[in-house]
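Quick question: what would this complex look like in 3D?
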Amino acid sequence: QRAPVPASVDVVIVGAGFGGMYMLHRLRGLGLSAIVFDVAAGVGGTWYWNRYPGARCDVESMQYSYSFADAIQQEWQWSELFAGQPEILRYANYVADRLDLRRDMRFETRVTAAEFDETASRWTVRTDRGDVVSARFCIMATGCLSAARMPDFPGMDSFTGKIYHTGHWPHEGVDFTGLRVGVIGTGSSAIQSIPVIAAQAKHVTVFQRTPNFSIPSRNGPMPEAYAQSWKQDYAAKRAEARMSRNGIVAYPLDRSAIETPEAERLAIYEQRWVSGGTTFMAAFNDLAVNKASNDTAAEFVRGKIRAMVKDPATADLLAPTNHPIGTKRICVDTDYYTTYNRENVSLVDVRQQPIEALTPAGLRVGEREYAFDAIVFATGFDAMTGALTRMGIAGRDGETLAAKWEAGPRTYLGLMTAGFPNMFMITGPGSPSVLSNMMVSIEQHVDWIADCLASMRKRGLDLIEADLDAEDAWVQHVNDVAHTTLYPAAASWYMGANIPGKPRVFMPYIGGVGAYRQKCDAVAANGYEGFILGEPAPVAVA
Ligand code: NA7
């Protein structure tokens, strides 16, 4: 039984993941009324849905957590260096309990439309349960990787076995014991789940279109002394993360790879490889911008793959050659490559010859049919824009967000988009978001939005909108900065390249988390430069 939904609130928040949770907390602190909708049955967002075997954060636990409440960051104890999905979901629930968030949340409720009413300067938000809520502000905390993508192979309905998508995993779990399993995709979700599925299944066949670079996580139980070293110094470490490149304290080396003598360079890579995890790309300062430098890192990892995988043909297929390392989000794994040494695991290259169709027994590649009891789609997401453009958002003159963004997303600072007044996005396209530790980026956006609303109230204003010229300039800047790097060289989901027909635009802002924060703060300090602020709409007289 769902609690009643108020007809009118100050703010509707869409999404009860880490963004929506903290946003609600901040709005309460400002004395604003808010209601949060989420299609899930509980909090957690990404960590509610992605329950596939082996699902784990690729940012280490001590850094992937809220920093806004010292009591919470001191109380919570992570059990592993890299937390798994169940533990992160427990953490989200713990925070929700601790802050009593759920009383303003309505679950199992999908927002189907959000329309801006220009006469009243208010949003009308509708849900699939028939709710109609009027709100002054609408905050989209819908996540960057939340709209799961299923390829539309012919014969999808004909397959008689089970079909799963990693991003919509059954809550009761799946027992693969004794089953023949096909896995489609070799992104982060596949790389995490394949070793775990292979340990259970009779046979696993992996269909790889593009190999990815993966670094061993070196995950393990959290040493108490390590946790304490963070907790005792959290204020300083969090401050460092906020001003860093990716929102992660990674101790980057400030020197060029290509200018470092080879033996020394290899020793540095080796040391990063052995310590494991996310910080590999911080080994040198030019890996993202200098192809020759990048090649040295890529070749180092390819060498590791060849050393780990016994069958040379399989090793060759697994060693990525078609994109610079790091230009697709680097994966972090536990035993991924060595899993291919197991007798019950095989790899099929579907780059030249794609999967043609699903069949009643399995799937077909060219003339060959593969039979399965279950097929796991680890095929990713309509990243960054999918959740927003699918929602039925309409701004001024009834213009839909989907129409406005037809040629690619356009935002000012990734926070607002012109023509959609009073609608904010948390970690929207045009902000660092997926190129960063999401926790750091989420907190930065939530704080910025909350401070903005507080400042507007103080000045008696209640309308804010991105200025079109400021937006155009920001989009140009996001694009210019992206093209100073090697990132656009990869056909990645950062570029929309994984969705047929999606425009190829580099969506996140790659200028760095710290530089971006300074820009946002400067905009606020200059009276919200680039935003148009307005008076309250006059009350209509009958
Ligand atoms: P990703 O990284 O988008 O990976 C999806 C994978 O699925 C990728 O290897 C794709 O190959 C593959 N794919 C997609 N469609 C097909 C078809 N039709 N045939 C064969 N292979 C296909 O999603 P993940 O869920 O793994 O990870 C998303 C992020 O979550 C990750 O970066 C972390 O930040 C956490 P492609 O590369 O497109 O050739």
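Answer marked as accepted. Residues 145, 151, 166, 184-190, 207, 209-210, 329, 350, 355, 378-380, 493, 498 surround NA7 (CB under 6 Å).
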